[in-house]
Amino acid sequence: MIETKRPPQNVRREIITLSADDGARLALHLWRPRRRPKGAVFYFHGLQSHAGWLWEVGPRFADNDIAFFVLDRRGSGVSDGPRNEIPDVATVISDYTVALTHVRETIGDDVPLSLFGHCLGGSFLAALVHHADFTVRYEAAVYCSTWLGRLHSLLGESERAALAADTGTQLWDAGLRSEDFTAVPRYQRFIDDDDLAIRSITRRSRGTLLELERLYVDPDHPDRSEPPRVPTVFVSGLTDPFLDLDDSRRVFDRMVTERGTIIHFPTDRHYLFYTDVRDDLVDWASTHTLLQGLDRDV
Questions:
Q1: Does the structure show a pLDDT above 60 at 1?
Q2: If you ran DSSP here, which 8-state letter would residue 223 be given?
Q3: Where is the Serine aminopeptidase S33 domain positioned along the sequence (predicted)?
Q4: How far apart are CA 207 and CA 212, in angstroms?
Q5: Is the Cβ–Cβ distance between 39 and 294 less than 8 Å?
Q6: 89-107 and 120-129 are packed helices; what angle lies between their axes, rounded to 10 degrees?
Q7: Is 5 within the bounds of a domain?
Q8: Cβ 199 vs Cβ 176: under 8 Å
Q9: Which domain, by its residues, includes 239?
């Protein structure tokens, strides 16, 4: 059973309403230390989750003097947008760019910023930093429990072509089980009873996910730009019920051209923040972020 090592002492939470380029309202959640933050983490949530899943994690980051930001992706959490629908790639990239532009303006130029993508959120992160339109400065990137290039790995060329052309609105069930995410009963109950969770998406949304993958697996993609050379880490449990870790690490190695770091935490569940390694993961991610600011302090 997870036990909190120390209660948060200096944390306040707020929800900032951002206006997307098309006027949609996006909810950016922030756990902010009461004193000036020494670092910041922007979290990309997965398919079914949203910022509400980080109700314990956000305060722990803030208690480490890290401002912790989570955007409810369009159609998720309390952001605008149809449920079970992932918008086109241009909208996805634009929404995250709007949010991260606000984050950088909020924290200032001298605070190190880490981008942290969990599960499907890691694929959104990879697509964003490889897109030519994204120019917000960040100092580190973390891919946590992410099967990078999943659809490219599982589907052949003809299957990918069919998926890319599919404009259907029929729902596809992702087959997510709470017991694969966590072994802790109270977290399982939370996931199963979460009315805001997204458990299925339209068939055309899977085509969007495929196109997002193309941004970081296809070096000839017309909108692709090489991301900055920042410390980049792949984090996972020792095993994962959802991921082919070997396959994902191969994609990771190609993305970072063998410049990345791989870290394993001792768990066999998917959602590391709902396991016994949560506190260690938060403290590691906090330290990793703060280290990126040392050069500015010299």
A1: no
A2: T
A3: 36-273
A4: 9
A5: no
A6: 80
A7: no
A8: yes
A9: 11-291
Among all chains, which residue has been given the structure tokens 């993508």? 117
Phi, psi of 30 (to 5 degrees): -135, 125
Give the model's pLDDT for residue 298: 40
3-state helix, strand, coil in the chain (%, to 5): 40, 20, 40
The C-alpha atoms of residue 141 and residue 289 are separated, in whole angstroms, by 9
Residue 156 lies in a domain: yes
Tokens of 47: 């398919």
* Domain of residue 42, CATH code: 3.40.50.1820
- The amino acid occupying position 250 is R
What are phi and psi for residue 12, nearest 5 degrees? Answer: -135, 150
Q: What is the pLDDT of residues 33-88, one digit of tens each?
A: 988 999 999 999 999 999 999 999 999 999 999 999 999 999 999 999 999 999 99
Considering the domain boundaries, does residue 233 fall inside one?
yes
Instruction: In whole angstroms, give the CA distance from residue 222 to residue 54.
Output: 35
- Could you tell me where the DSSP H helices lie in the chain? 57-63, 89-107, 120-129, 150-154, 157-165, 178-181, 185-193, 203-217, 245-256, 278-291, 294-297
Number of independent structural domains in the chain: 1
Q: Does 36 map to a domain?
A: yes
User: Do 140 and 114 form a contact (C-beta atoms < 8 A)?
Assistant: yes
**What is residue 197's three-state secondary structure?**
coil
For residue 176, what are the contacts with CB-CB under 8 A and spacing of at least 6? 47, 48, 199
242-285: pLDDT as tens digits: 999 999 999 999 999 867 999 999 999 999 999 999 999 999 99
Rounded CA-CA distance 65/242 in Å is: 32
What is the sign, positive or negative, of the torsion defined by CA atoms of 203, 204, 205, 207?
positive
Q: pTM of the prediction?
A: 0.95
Number of Cα atoms under 13 Å in the Cβ half of residue 209: 27
Q: Is the CB of residue 73 less than 8 Å from the CB of residue 48?
A: no
d(CA 270, CA 237): 7
